[in-house]
């Protein structure tokens, strides 16, 4: 069965905003790539199960989030609302289907915002939580919130790259309440986090090119081990970016921007990681990627080389067995979202 895909982009070159495409698993091609919403810098997006599409947006000197009524069958996206403020744009959005809330994280302003989502997908800003801090690296002169999303236990987890911290929060009466802060190794530069189960998580360090295995209990994280995402011999710049876990929770994937690869880890019985592959992505700056719902394909978007790369994945071994193609154009692609896939 064909699967619909949404792509977020930067728009400083040829891109016009949000794009959609279709993966045909028989021909192993992504076709019908088209612009469905014209807006500036929709660098991250997400969807709900009721036709809602939520995206970052930049408009002149203002930025924030936008909501759309999205029909995957027709490919139409109707703008429903925008919530904007003066300043730079957020970098991450996440949707809470149980409470009908939207969250955004802003790298530049170091804040988390909470929005109420109405039945017609319109947004209302409810609360903002601001952070201060810093780290030892030049990129860590201040706090940089790079991620906010739900943990399996319903807590809200935020990742602060600038301060090397993980934040545990909850929502009460449409307010963000900070419960606990976990300090990571200085200079780790955490970016995104994924959970294997209620007690196990993996956080990718953008600045350190590492993945940390974490034990999670009662809103608190404990570091168990760290693993490199690139060879020790690589001395040029690298920034680890996206992190995904397979649906069966047996394999972990991380993109490397600079080394330009997907690092593939097998997850052992005690949750340790074993690097089994580092697959070249045939493009420059693979900021995001995603697995389709079958787990047989992995699709990569490259920010600097404006191309998509599709791998055939072996669900049994986790290996990216074949790079099928890398010549499909997507301008400044930085977010890959399968409708119903393992994003």
UniProtKB/TrEMBL annotation:
GO molecular function: 6-phosphogluconolactonase activity
Pfam families xref list: Lactonase
Matches recorded under InterPro entries: Cycloisomerase_2, Haem_d1_sf, Lactonase_7-beta_prop, WD40/YVTN_repeat-like_dom_sf
Residue ranges that the Swiss-Prot or TrEMBL entry lists as coiled coil: none
A single Gene Ontology CC term: cytosol
Protein family: Belongs to the cycloisomerase 2 family.
Protein name per UniProt: 6-phosphogluconolactonase
Lineage: Bacteria, Bacillati, Bacillota, Bacilli, Lactobacillales
């Amino acid at each position: 069965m064909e699967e619909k895909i949404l792509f977020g982009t930067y728009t400083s070159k040829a891109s016009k905003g949000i794009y959609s495409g279709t993966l045909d698993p028989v021909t192993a091609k992504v076709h019908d790539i088209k612009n469905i919403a014209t807006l500036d810098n929709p660098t991250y997006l997400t969807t709900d199960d009721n036709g809602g599409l939520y995206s970052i947006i930049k408009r002149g000197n203002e930025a924030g989030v936008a909501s759309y009524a999205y029909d995957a069958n027709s490919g139409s996206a109707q703008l429903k609302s925008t919530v904007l403020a003066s300043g730079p744009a957020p970098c991450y959005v996440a949707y809470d289907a149980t409470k009908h809330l939207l969250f955004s994280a802003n790298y530049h302003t170091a804040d988390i915002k909470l929005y109420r989502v109405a039945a017609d997908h319109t947004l209302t800003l409810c609360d903002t939580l601001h952070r201060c801090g810093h780290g030892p690296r030049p990129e860590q002169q201040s706090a940089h919130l790079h991620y906010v999303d739900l943990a399996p236990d319903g807590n809200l987890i935020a990742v602060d790259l600038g301060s090397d911290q993980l934040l545990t929060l909850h929502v009460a009466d449409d307010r963000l309440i900070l419960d606990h802060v976990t300090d990571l190794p200085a200079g780790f530069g955490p970016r995104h986090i994924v959970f294997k189960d209620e007690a196990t998580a993996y956080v990718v360090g953008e600045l350190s090119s590492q993945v940390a295995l974490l034990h999670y209990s009662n809103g608190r994280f404990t570091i168990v081990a760290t693993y490199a995402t690139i060879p020790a011999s690589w001395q040029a710049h690298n920034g680890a970016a996206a992190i995904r876990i397979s649906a069966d929770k047996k394999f972990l994937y991380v993109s490397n921007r600079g080394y330009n690869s997907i690092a593939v880890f097998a997850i052992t019985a005690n949750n340790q990681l074993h690097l089994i592959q580092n697959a070249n992505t045939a493009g420059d700056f693979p900021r995001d990627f995603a697995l389709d719902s079958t787990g047989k394909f992995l699709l990569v978007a490259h920010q600097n080389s404006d191309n998509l790369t599709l791998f055939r994945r072996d669900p049994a071994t986790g290996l990216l067995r074949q790079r099928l193609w890398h010549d499909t154009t997507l301008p400044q692609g930085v977010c890959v979202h399968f409708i119903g896939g393992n994003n």
